[in-house]
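Q: Got a minute? One more chain.
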Amino acid sequence: MKDPKFKVKLAALVLLLTENEEVSRTSLNKLLFFTDVAYFIRTGKPFSESRYIKMQYGPVPENISHIREILIATGWIQEEEQNDQVLYSYYYKNIADTSTMDKIKNKIRENDPELLEIIQKVNLKLRPKTAGELSRISHMYEPWKSALWNDELDFERIKLDDSFKKWLEDELDVVLN
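A: Always. Here it is, folded:
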C-alpha cells in the first residue's frame, strides 16, 4: 500500500511547478514526469511516488486529476479553460499566498535540498518549452518507449536508457549520479 503522503508530495510539486507562471495541463504533466525522473536517477525513487501512465500526449501521473481538483477547491491554483474552436486547453496558475509557498520551499530545503535544485532547474530550463516539445521528448526515451497504452511506466527501465539520463543532465545542467 502506498504511503498517503504521496498525494501531498504530488500536490507540492504541482504548486512549485506552477509558481509565477501559467502552465498548460499537458506541460504540467510532463514537468512532473521530468522532475520525478531526475529525482529517480539521483535517488533511486521518484519524489512524488506517483505512478505514471502512458497516455496519448505522454506520461500522466495517475492521481493528477484528483490533486488538481483539491488544489483548485482550496484556492491554491486556478484553472482557466481556453477554447480556440479546435481544442480546449486548460492552464493552471499557482495563486497560493507567499507564506504558503515559503513554508513548502523551506520544508523541502530542510529535508531534501536536492529536490529543490531539480525543481528550480526544471522550471528554468523545461517550463519555457511548449507542451508539444515536452511530449515529443518524453516519447523518445524509456520507460515510455516500451510501455503499452494506458499501462504504468516502469521507472526501472530508465536505468537502461543512458541517453535519457544524458539528455536530462545536459538540459537541466545538473549531475544526477
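A: The longest helix spans residues 25-43.
Q: Perfect, thanks.
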